Amino acid sequence: MRLQTRLILLIGSLLFIIIIALTFSFERMLVNNLEKSVGSSALKIAKTVALMDVIGDAFDDANPSATIQPIVEKIRMETDAEYIVIGNREGIRYAHPIPDRIGKEMVGGDNGPVLQGESIISKAVGSMGPSLRGKTPIYDDHNQIIGIVSVGILVKDIEASAQAYRNEMILFAAIALMVGCGGAIAIANSVKRSIHGLEPKEIGMLYQEKRAILETIHEGIIAVNTEGTVTLVNHTALMLIDPNETMEITGRHVQEVIPGSRLLEVIKSGQAERDQEMVINESLVVVNRLPIYNHQQQVVGAVSSFRNKSELLRLTEELTQVKRYTEALRAQSHEYSNKLYTIYGLIQLESYQEAMDLITHETDVHQNLIHFLLHEIPDPIIGGILIGKFNRANELKVNLEIDRRSTFKAIPSAISRNQLVTVIGNLIDNAFDSVLESSAPVKQITVLLSDTGLDLAIEISDSGLGISEENAGRLFEMGFSTKKQENRGFGLSNVQQAVQQLGGSISFRNRPEGGVTFAVVIPKIRGDSYDTSAHH
After folding, report:
1. How many CB atoms lie within 10 A of CB 103?
2. pLDDT, tens digit (0-9, with 9 covering 90-100), for 457-492
3. Distance CA 387, CA 432 (A)
4. How far is residue 108's CA from residue 102's CA, in Å, rounded to a whole number?
């Protein structure tokens, strides 16, 4: 059975039971109150008649009925009582609505308490049928009981009055039941719309699927309602926010969990924010924030996804390394192909000495470079990127010089080689772009690496265009580039992030003779008190 049908049946059944029970209870209360009211009225009439002097005096007459009957009948007609019966102590009637019954004994068997001086209301079967009667004694001048007054209302008349009220109550109950059933249908339809027509089993399955999906996502997910209370968080987000898993996040305000969160601003504006950077628990993350809308297009909350930027940078670096190695191999292959064709041509021209000199020169250049790198920069990863860039420079007709004062032997194992390659590779690529755009006759790039003292120093100079004042403030901004090509403006931003993660600093200055020099300082031993600004 569908949820909507079950809701209608459940609510309808409850309403039916409650309305029937209330109607029955009210009906019994009404009948009891009506009987009580009628009985009380009958007793008051009986007491009024008993106090009439003419009634008491008539008991001394030879024929009391002649005096009492007309008076009592007149009172009965005016009060709408079914009957008023007066009898003496022996129960012999002196007055009765049916004259033939005068002189006969009273029926009902409830005169005992009245003859003892009590006024009572009783229900008994008299000569006219079942009735509710009020009875009181009649006293003479000596305060002696000489008779009984009985005023009665037939039970069938009370039932007729109660039936009229009962019909109205049944009509009201029927209307209430119809209105309630309509409300039950409306509630069931509203619930169905709220849960998009899904059944409880389907909702439970969707919930389990959602939890499984959230836990398999490598990005942190956190959702809040309009008040900023966290309503959902996955395990990845928990690990980023609280690696020790000591904090209960769900149900807390988002500003307590992530100080500086902009989710409330997203809720107010209804505008999504994409690829924003922020710091969570000392980790730099890339954040996307989106408002959550209901079916009426009203903002009911916001959700944020974020991922540790170091992971993104690691993936970027791996792709960059593959690209660099590919470019280095391509440049080296192209350069050697040119040299081989030149040597082949010299041999065909029988210029053997020139061919020998060219081979000797190329061998000396590469052997000297490799020998220098093996001795002063023994790290194969750093050496490899320098050789690749050297070959690339030969292909571009750029003079790339590695300063012979360079030494890069004492690199601590804690310092990531990939991050050093990111710094060196991107700075040389930036220098390539700068010198190739320059009109200077000599396109020169100089690389100086030093590991003396407490720091690793990287200095890369070029003879390019330099840095203008208007661009200096945005040089390390992600996506900013003076080039018009797409997918540019990430190299120097990646360099700055890598330097920051290594605890170092980066600066640049324009050279008087033209071009720019970038200087990077990275401490060999990181410490909270280490001030890198002193080594710029």
Report:
1. 12
2. 999 999 988 887 777 777 777 655 666 544 455 678
3. 15
4. 16
In 73-127, the DSSP E strands lie at 83-88, 93-95, 120-126
HSE value, Cβ hemisphere, 13 Å, CA-based, for 405: 8
What is the β-pairing status of strands 516-523 and 505-510?
antiparallel
Q: How many beta carbons lie within 10 A of that of residue 465, not counting itself?
A: 18
Q: Which tens digit of pLDDT belongs to each residue from 264-312?
A: 898 998 888 887 877 777 677 888 899 988 878 888 899 988 877 666 5
The residue count of the chain comes to 536
Alpha helices in 301-379 (DSSP H): 309-348, 352-376
Which residues contact residue 131 at a Cβ distance below 8 angstroms, ignoring those fewer than 6 apart?
Answer: 82, 83, 123, 124, 125, 152, 153, 154, 155
Tokens standing for residue 190: 């509203």
Separation between Cα atoms, residue 56 and residue 315, nearest integer Å: 120
- Rounded-to-integer distance, Cα 187 and Cα 193, Å: 10
Alpha carbon distance 231, 225 (integer Å): 7
Question: Over 90: is that where the pLDDT of 109 sits?
Answer: no
Identify the helix (H) or strand (E) that includes residue 283: strand 283-293
Could you tell me if 86 and 149 are in contact, meaning their C-beta atoms sit under 8 angstroms apart? yes
Q: 9: number of CA atoms within 13 Å, CB side? A: 6
**Amino acid at site 273:** E
Q: How far apart are CA 106 and CA 85, in angstroms?
A: 8
Token couple for 375: 């001795």
Contact 281, 306 (CB under 8 A): no
53 band by pLDDT with thresholds 50, 70 and 90: confident
Sign, CA dihedral 215-220-221-224, equals positive
> Alpha-carbon torsion 203, 204, 207, 213, what sign?
negative
- Rounded Cα distance between 352 and 480, Å, is 52
Per-residue model confidence (pLDDT) at position 446: 93
Rg (C-alpha) for the chain, rounded Å, is: 54
Q: How many whole angstroms separate alpha carbon 435 and alpha carbon 328?
A: 19
Residue 191 confidence (pLDDT) above 60: yes
Let me know the angle formed at the C-alpha of 191 by 187 and 193, rounded to the nearest 5 degrees. Answer: 115
Rounded CA-CA distance 242/434 in Å is: 44
pLDDT score recorded for residue 482: 61
Measured distance CA(398)–CA(346) in Å, rounded: 25
Instruction: Kindly list the strands in the beta sheet with 120-126, ordered across the sheet, starting from the edge strand earlier in the chain.
Output: 93-95, 83-88, 145-154, 129-139, 120-126
pLDDT surpasses 90 at 137 = yes
Q: Are strands 399-402 and 145-154 parallel, antiparallel or unpaired?
A: unpaired
d(C-alpha 305, C-alpha 287), whole Å: 6
Q: Are 475 and 427 in contact (CB under 8 A)?
A: no
